[in-house]
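Researcher: Can you fold this with (2S)-2-hydroxybutanedioic acid in place?
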Amino acid sequence: MFETIEKLPADPILGLTAAFNEDSNPKKIDLSVGVYKDESGKTPIFAAVKRAEKLWLGEENTKVYIPPPGYPEFNTAMQPHILGAGHQALKENRVRSVMAPGGCGAVRVGAELLNRSRSGATIWVSKPTWNNHGPLLGSAGLKIKEYPYYSDKTHGVEADAMLSVLRKVGKSDIVLMHACCHNPTGADLSREDWQAVARLAQKQGFLPFVDCAYHGMAEGLEEDGYGARLLAESVPEMLIAYSCSKNFGLYRDRIGALLVVAADAGRADAGLTHVNNIARAMYSMPPAHGGAIVKTILGDRELYRVWKEELDGMRVRMNSLRALFADTLAKKKAPRDFSFVKSQRGLFSMLGLKKEQVQRLRKEFSVYIVESSRMNIAGISQKNIEYLTDSILAVL
Ligand code: LMR
């Protein structure tokens, strides 16, 4: 049987970690996988998470299966956390949610639900989008098309080009949007852009699917929820995939959520039965530990305060690293202007390097970035900034 199976190339993002770990260059820098790192290069466990884990260890008295949608307290807390307390869709009782195995699990289950509703439907994704969106959405059977999003020239969102394509997208299609901290570009929609998308979704009837993997890491928890909240107010149906990997630092615990917003309570209930049924056929029920930690934090005023403070600190630090990077290159008289990095948000920016330049960075300087020239800003530090910027200058 397996003689028909060919070896696959390494994953375009995760594969770089393996290559980095094998690299013996003491100056090596890993700016590939999207994980937050502190000044020492470590991905710390949030203090709020440590405290929640301690509490939970004392409280947990069984390892029996959790209900298929996950902990009810997680879902009750997560819906207003994402949509904002008092959101109209919550008042109308037309939102249901489940815990999912990370943001990936949430995107995949959402895609399966969409494919069940309309087999082989077209989903529009931004050009470019996260490398794993294609496999996650395509594996569910959806057809993928791209809408223009990022301009290599302005290093910002090409809103007019995007809207002119979305204007032609009809009611049997789905449009995937990044809530904030667009992966891989770091270029986010403005409020006006979100309003224009919401008007089009209303008029054209397409179903928005918002991927929210970096909530609180662009401008703040309230601000970063703007697009998803506006859409949930504007349209009868949408999906939101949420990841707790980065903003709670729970990467390996695999915890996220899928929110189904439907036209009314009955449709929402029906949607939930399908989501549970889809999950049952793939993994039965989500891993419990991450959900227990998140529900503990969201349900405890003091832990929530500590968590939010830590998240705010990460965001502020990433913005200072953006400035450090762009200003250092400017001081070194780089032949290109990298000031756009300062106006982008989240973990990523795309440097606009060619594939060969990205390869030279890796082979000659042991600086690891994704082939699209996406760089993880959080991997920059005071210690590596000189070597990093010198290496980039050398390949420019
Ligand atoms: C990334 O884009 O690097 C992260 O979301 C990690 C992943 O799973 O790809």
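Model: Folded with (2S)-2-hydroxybutanedioic acid in place. The two ends are 47 Å apart (CA to CA).
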